[in-house]
Every structure is written in structure tokens, then in C-alpha cells.
């Protein structure tokens, strides 16, 4: 579930528009006859929905605390709030802001974003990612997820609010990250995919070595990506045809739009942004840069 944020200038407005203007709290957990020590339940205050069980060291981060620090960048014109969303009925909440200017790759426009993610289910930290989206097809090309790439990661423990003070540095570091990303993307756009490069990219994307045999599902995915390599969005641009850039974008289009996830739209969003689909794209990107 997500909402677009045209004209929204504060994270509080964004949360209200998406129905996410609520808080969570920690509550004790009991068996029928005694308190369970060292454990707490994360509970939504409005209706008592339980998001998860955590240790008593866990520190909830409310939405205003998680996102309001970024309002200054929006007010200063350094970013524009664009989308807010959640999965797992609010168990993970995110807001995305677009940065000014675009990256140009062989005549294509790539938009730059910062994605802020907060969770209430005890499974992930408060995180901030850099990400890019190819305008011609709206493919989510990359999320800076590795520790070498992303610049903010704070577990929900007693010092989480102290760490959030350092999140202000995220805007200053964005320029370096996107300049490096553009260099990598340009390299892929200038290099032709070798004869067996497509097969090897797909195997690497699925975590296979060399040309190891794919499962039936992986084989079907490979065929679908091959079709998109010829007919996908933006593939009529002669400048990218036959390049590693084209192969990567065909894979991303399949993951983001063609491949279905079991369950709801929620499941698909999780897969594309945080789950297996995101990992497949990351492995393909790494393979193409190395080979």
C-alpha cells in the first residue's frame, strides 16, 4: 500500500495522508500465570495490533522521530516527498523523497531518491537508502543496501535516537554515492554483453555459479527476461541494445512488474524493495560490474 505525496512538505502530512499517524508501545507479555521476563510485545496504540515480540532492550521509534528530521531538506528545496507506504499492516513504514536533477545514461533519465524505512516488527533496523529509478519504465534500479553503500543503519536499542542525529549527514553524502553509481551505470551502458553473458548474468542473479542448472521457476524467469531484453520498455533505444545495461534493465522490469509474488500487493512490494527480488537485482548488478 502506498500514497503519492504531491504538494506534501512535511512527514507528518505524509503519515496522515497514508493513515499512518499512530504510535506503538511496548507491553508486558504473560503466560496464564506469570510474567515472561526479558520480552515485550510491540503494540499499535490505536487498536492493540501486535507487530512482534522483542527483547526488553528494544526501543520503539515513532514515525515523527523516524522521519521528521528530513523535513528540513524538503523545506530547503533539497528534496521533494513523493511516496509514502507500508507493508504488513504498518509493520514496516517507508517514505521516499526525490532529489533534484537527474542522471543521464545514453539519453535515458535516471531519477535519484532517498528512501527512509522504519519498522515495528523487531526484524529490521531504522534504515536510510539511496535508490535510483529509470524514468522510461519506472524500474527501481538499485538500492544501496550493503554496508559499504548505505550510510545509516540504527537498531532499535537505547542509543537509536542518538544515532538518528547523525542521519543529517545523509544529504551531504548523497552526491558521492550517486556520482559513483553513475560511473558504474555508464560502464554497463558502454559494454556489450558477451555471447554467454546473459545466461551467466541470470545464473549469478539466482545465486548460481557459472552455468549451473536452473530450477524450473528460474528457467521460466530467464525466458521472460530474455523476451524483455528485446521488447521491454526503453529497449527501442538503439544506444543501449546489446549492452549490459539493457540486460540488467530487462531483469529489473521482470522483477518489478512482470513477476508475481504469492499473496497480495503487500507481498510484491516487499519482494521488490526488501526481499528476494531486491537481492536478485543486486547480484545481477554486481556480476555485470565484475565480468
Q: Tally the helices: what do you get?
A: 10
Report the average pLDDT across residues. 85
User: How big a fraction of the residues is strand?
Assistant: 25-35%
Shape: globular
Unreliable spans = none
Alpha carbon gap, first and last residue: 37 Å
Care to count the β-strands? 10
In N-to-C order, the SSE pattern is EHEEEHHEEEEEEHHHHHHH
What structural category do the secondary elements indicate? alpha+beta
* CA radius of gyration: 21 Å
Largest sheet: 7 strands, antiparallel
Query: What is the helix content?
Result: 25-40%
Keywords:
291 residues, 2 domains, seven-stranded antiparallel sheet, 10 helices
Please describe what this structure looks like.
- The chain folds into 2 domains: 179 residues, no CATH class; 100 residues.
- Helix 6 crosses helix 8, helix 7 packs across helix 8 and helix 8 runs antiparallel to helix 10.
- The chain is built from 10 helices and 10 strands.
- It is α+β, with helices and mostly antiparallel strands and 291 residues long.
- Strand 3 and strand 4 form a beta hairpin.
- The strands form 2 sheets. Strands 1, 5, 6, 7, 8, 9 and 10 form a 7-stranded antiparallel beta sheet that branches. A 3-stranded antiparallel beta sheet has the order 2-3-4, with no helix packed on it.
- Helices cover 37% and strands 26% of the residues.
- The radius of gyration is 21 Å and the shape is globular.
Amino acid at each position: 500500500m502506498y500514497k503519492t505525496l504531491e504538494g506534501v512538505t512535511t512527514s507528518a502530512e505524509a503519515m496522515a495522508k497514508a493513515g499512518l499517524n499512530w504510535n506503538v508501545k511496548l507491553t508486558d507479555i504473560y503466560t496464564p500465570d506469570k510474567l515472561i521476563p526479558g520480552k515485550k510485545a510491540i503494540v499499535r496504540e490505536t487498536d492493540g495490533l501486535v507487530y512482534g515480540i522483542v527483547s526488553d532492550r528494544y526501543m520503539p521509534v515513532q514515525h515523527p522521530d523516524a522521519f521528521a528530521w528530513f523535513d528540513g531538506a524538503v523545506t530547503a528545496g533539497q528534496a521533494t516527498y513523493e511516496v509514502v507506504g507500508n507493508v504488513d499492516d504498518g509493520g514496516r513504514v517507508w517514505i521516499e523523497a526525490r532529489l533534484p536533477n537527474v542522471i543521464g545514461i545514453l539519453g535515458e533519465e535516471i531519477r535519484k531518491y532517498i528512501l527512509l524505512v522504519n519498522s515495528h516488527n523487531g526484524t529490521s533496523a531504522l534504515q536510510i537508502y539511496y535508490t535510483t529509478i529509470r524514468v522510461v519504465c519506472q524500474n527501481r534500479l538499485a538500492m544501496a543496501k550493503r554496508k559499504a553503500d548505505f550510510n545509516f543503519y540504527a537498531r532499535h536499542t537505547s542509543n537509536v535516537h542518538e544515532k538518528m542525529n547523525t542521519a543529517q549527514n545523509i544529504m551531504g553524502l548523497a552526491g558521492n554515492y550517486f556520482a559513483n553509481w553513475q560511473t558504474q551505470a555508464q560502464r554497463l551502458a558502454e559494454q556489450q554483453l558477451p555471447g554467454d553473458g546473459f545466461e551467466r548474468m541470470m545464473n549469478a542473479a539466482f545465486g548460481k555459479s557459472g552455468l549451473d542448472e536452473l530450477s524450473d521457476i528460474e528457467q521460466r524467469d530467464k525466458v521472460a527476461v530474455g523476451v524483455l531484453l528485446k521488447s521491454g520498455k526503453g529497449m527501442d533505444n538503439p544506444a543501449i541494445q546489446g549492452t549490459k545495461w539493457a540486460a540488467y534493465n530487462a531483469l529489473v522490469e521482470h522483477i518489478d512488474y512482470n513477476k508475481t509474488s504469492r499473496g497480495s500487493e503487500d507481498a510484491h512490494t516487499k519482494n521488490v524493495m526488501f526481499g528476494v527480488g531486491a537481492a536478485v537485482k543486486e547480484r545481477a548488478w554486481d556480476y555485470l560490474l565484475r565480468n
